[in-house]
Amino acid sequence: MIVDLFAGPGGWSHALSVLGVRDVGLEWDEWACRTRAAAGQLTLRTDVARYPVWPFVGRTTGVIASPPCQAWSMAGKRLGLLDQPLAHQAVADLAAGRDTRDQLLAACRDERSLLAAEPMRYLYALNATGEPEWVAMEEVPDVLPLWKQYAAILRSWGFSVWTGILNAADFGVPQTRRRAILLASRTRPARPPEPTHARVPEPPTLFGPGRARWVSMAEALGWGATDRPVPTVCAGGGPGGGPEPFPSGSRKTLADARDRGTWRQPPRPADTGRLRHRNRPAVPAHENAPPSTGATPGWAWSLRTNSQSNATVRRADEPAGTLFFGHRANQCLWVAEPATATAQDTSAAPEAIRITAPEAGVLQTFPSDYPWAGNKGQMFSQIGNAVPPRLAAHLLSPHLGRPLDPDDFTLAA
User: Fold this and answer.
1) Under 8 Å between Cβ of 169 and 176
2) Residue 112 lies in a domain
3) What is the pLDDT of residues 194-246, one digit of tens each?
4) Range of 228's domain?
């Protein structure tokens, strides 16, 4: 079997299904488990840090791990950086068969910091029987030093290992999401996949097929195609209504953003029940963008990731910045910006529009009809923490000996 630690809503699992393989995911979050169940993925709802390894011994060909990144992410307090020496100590101890996690956890500033060491507990137990054949792990860039420690240990066990930073946009993901990757194998040289896309397209040559231009948000979402359904947003907290699970301070942040002029209230269409339809933002004029429909003259649409002054803002004819959401889901907005030098009257700008969960999922390369479970906050949390399936498929394809057809991932559906 393939064991997927911290499986989340199924980024790795969906990639494996595209490649014709299944995994067993270990996941704690209730709503991620419900999403996985609706997507038909095998799941054990459990705490990865407490689940025994013996059920997998003698049966495991591959181990996948994407530990929770909140302790290390730029979107959080980054206490994981302060706890990094403790995480290194946990990895070293587990690789030697010593379980010091409880003592080290008591000294951590963020209880999630040691989760990045958990895969070593599984790998140590499996190595006793010559397992697994391969390993694939993913985390935010600041975890790369920990991955290098894993690499040194795995090499001493007979693995070929590669570690490094990959940009998801280089593999057809409409998002410049940079991640620390570890790839290891007992049966083949470990190396990163060849990029298929680039910021500037590269024509085919005698030495290779070339690279396509980075996939834009507009291209991924199919904007401008008249046969696409109009997206919807949910009134209240989600498809089932209810409160939005954001911390009490987040609404104050939105209020402060309004005062700073960095946030615009979305339009309020007439109530049509729990689901409200809204017009799709128009694609800005660009030589590689799909033809737009319903464009507002003089204005182009961009995606703003949050209300902070340093928020990433990308035009729709570019890939998105890294989508992380968390409690800022309501602050990720489609905003209109002047498309020409003559469009300077900001009072005439179209109202900002919140991104929807299906749109965010597509920008992570999930199918547009992926069955996200939970209310709006729970869905966005899953999406922001997931591995882009298209990137995952590029990482896994060589291990499985299954070629990846670019048509296997239809970004807009």
Assistant:
1) yes
2) yes
3) 999 999 999 888 777 889 999 999 999 988 543 233 333 333 333 333 333 33
4) 217-383
